[in-house]
Design goal:
Strand content: 5-15%
Structural class: alpha/beta
CATH class of the largest domain: Alpha Beta
Number of strands: 12
Largest sheet: 7 strands, mixed
CATH superfamily of the largest domain: Type I PLP-dependent aspartate aminotransferase-like (Major domain)
Number of helices: 13
Shape: globular
Helix content: 40-55%
Strand order of the largest sheet: 2-8-7-6-5-3-4
CATH architecture of the largest domain: 3-Layer(aba) Sandwich
Distance between the termini: 30 Å
Mean pLDDT: 95
CATH topology of the largest domain: Aspartate Aminotransferase, domain 2
Amino acid sequence: MIYLDNAATTRVCPEAAQAALTAMTEGFGNPSSRYAHGAAAAERLRADRAAVAAAVGCLPEELFFTSCGTEGDNWAVRAAVEHGRRKGRHIITTAIEHTAVLEPIRALAGEGCEVTYLRPDRHGHISVDDLAAALRPDTVLVSMMLVNNELGTLLPVREAAAAIRAAGSPALLHTDAVQAFLKVPFTPRDLGVDLLTISGHKVRAPKGIGALYIRKGLKLKPLLLGGGQESGLRPGTEPTAQIAALATACNAWLPHREAYTDRMVQVKNHFLDSFSAALPQGVVVSPGDAPHICAVSLPGYPSEMLVRELSDRGICVSSGSACHRGKPSHVFAATGRPKGELLGVLRVSFSPESTAEECDALVEALTEICSARVSAR
């Protein structure tokens, strides 16, 4: 199998899998239990929190474990609006956010909030000037992702923080950093954000674990009510095996971070060059600012058909468009590109293990599919 859909999920690295197994079979105590086995689990949990916090670039007490990026995004959006309820009900976000941000914001709009959606240019970039113009005295939340999950574009989160400060706005700034984590250098403090979401399964940890950064001193409403875990903000017995795996995945990635980034950039550029040379009818929709994501299109060849035929050849990529009844994804639709391009989009995304040979196989398969279709007409 050739797997080039790493923006969807990643293969769990052996170190993380072993850490999870050890936590489940040996260090399985409840961290809240008072006896020695529970105390050992609590000590491991503290160490794992510190490891993930170091990877994020924050204090351990600013990091709260969640089940996934979607949970973190939902919690951040709703808690931020609740935090600012006495100051206003205006939210600013972008038209290309993940649905984990857009759907809770849509629900809040149904509850009386006003929402401004910043639209990208045709390349998927957001203007910070548009954000500054949209800020109002009653704006309580700005949510802007750091790396778009379908285009690979970087959004101006740091500049957004500066614009919010310059305007004297009370708005909290949240960023979905799920696709940026470990792939694009940042710290929450450097970005100037109040809230930041990550997810483990994008960085070779298992599914079912993520985290939300909450700036120290920011008092938010708890996500749940219960036993008081996660400083009372996200109670429930901690998933120690998943947390151990996430911490281990971070520790396995960090020493090689620069090399991994360089490798992904080289492989991505090789694919884009090969794609353009072999398929002149193709379009590079986004080369991606992030090292691991790009989007291309073969106008006239529906992406769902391409994904299916590539799968038959043992090659995994995403339709990117996430078509629903023939409609392209909201992300690509927001760029305003021609319909033919939108319906033929493929997202190709890489890991540190991806190779140029895999890219060559993908381009060769696409060439064969297009040739077969032309011959059949």
